């Protein structure tokens, strides 16, 4: 098939299958703009396959397979993006870092450091075991959630939720200390 025939075949395929393929994609996507983006990606892949002169025997079946794969990719990206957003919220300025409410320990006298560490240790003892473990591994041993997941066998999103609960509890429990010592 020469280039002119290829272009004609691509145009006929796209115009003939556009509505059916868009309907297929639309049923599986949260919005029309997202579905149209996936449709464009499928058509791009089709053009690329022809441009690279890789013949496609069953073009329509191939396009539906590519569409299904692109839809799966879309949801995988959404899941990763959501997880990154949750992780970022734990570490941002308004996030859930316990050490945001505690001052830099290098500028404290030893007695004040001991008071803070003792209060933190007591508060940690009140946490459920799994929350305490996640908190200690992430904040004190500087392990990533992925590393903690490998150690504990728990999913990363579960670990993030457990750390969030631990931080909220510890912030509340230690707020008096911050207010008494530093205000």
Give an overview in words.
This protein is mainly alpha-helical. The protein has helices at 3-26, 32-51, 59-91, 110-126, 129-140, 145-152, 156-182. It is rod-shaped, with a radius of gyration of 27 Å. The relative contact order is 0.08.
How are the elements arranged and paired?
Elements: H1 3-26, H2 32-51, H3 59-91, H4 110-126, H5 129-140, H6 145-152, H7 156-182
What are the defining features of this structure?
Rna Polymerase Sigma Factor, Chain: A; Arc Repressor Mutant, subunit A; mainly alpha
Short synopsis of the structure:
The chain is mostly helical and 183 residues long. Helix content is 77%, strand content 0%.
Instruction: Provide a count of the helices.
Output: 7
CATH superfamily of the largest domain: Winged helix-like DNA-binding domain superfamily/Winged helix DNA-binding domain
**What is the number of E strands?**
0
As a percent range, the share of strand residues is: under 5%
Mean pLDDT level: 78
Tell me which CATH architecture of the largest domain applies here. Orthogonal Bundle
What's the helix-strand series?
Answer: HHHHHHH
Shape: rod-shaped
Round the Cα radius of gyration to an integer and report it: 27 Å
Instruction: Measure the end-to-end span.
Output: 79 Å
- What is the CATH domain class of the largest domain? Mainly Alpha
Helix content: over 70%
- Overall tally of structural domains: 2
The helix/strand class is mainly alpha
């Amino acid at each position: 098939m020469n280039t002119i025939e290829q272009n004609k075949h691509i145009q006929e395929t796209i115009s003939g299958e556009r509505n059916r393929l868009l309907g297929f994609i639309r049923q599986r996507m949260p919005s029309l703009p997202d579905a149209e983006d996936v449709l464009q990606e499928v058509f791009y892949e089709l053009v690329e396959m022809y441009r690279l002169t890789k013949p496609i025997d069953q073009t329509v079946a191939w396009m539906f397979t590519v569409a299904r794969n692109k839809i799966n990719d879309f949801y995988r990206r959404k899941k990763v993006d959501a997880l990154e957003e949750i992780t970022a919220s734990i570490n941002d300025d308004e996030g859930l870092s316990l050490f945001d409410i505690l001052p830099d320990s290098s500028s404290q006298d030893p007695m004040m450091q001991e008071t803070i560490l003792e209060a933190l240790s007591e508060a940690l003892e009140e946490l459920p075991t799994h929350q305490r473990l996640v908190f200690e591994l992430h904040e004190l041993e500087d392990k990533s959630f992925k590393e903690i997941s490998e150690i504990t066998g728990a999913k990363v999103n579960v670990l993030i939720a457990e750390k969030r609960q631990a931080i909220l509890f510890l912030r509340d429990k230690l707020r008096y200390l911050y207010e008494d010592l530093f205000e």
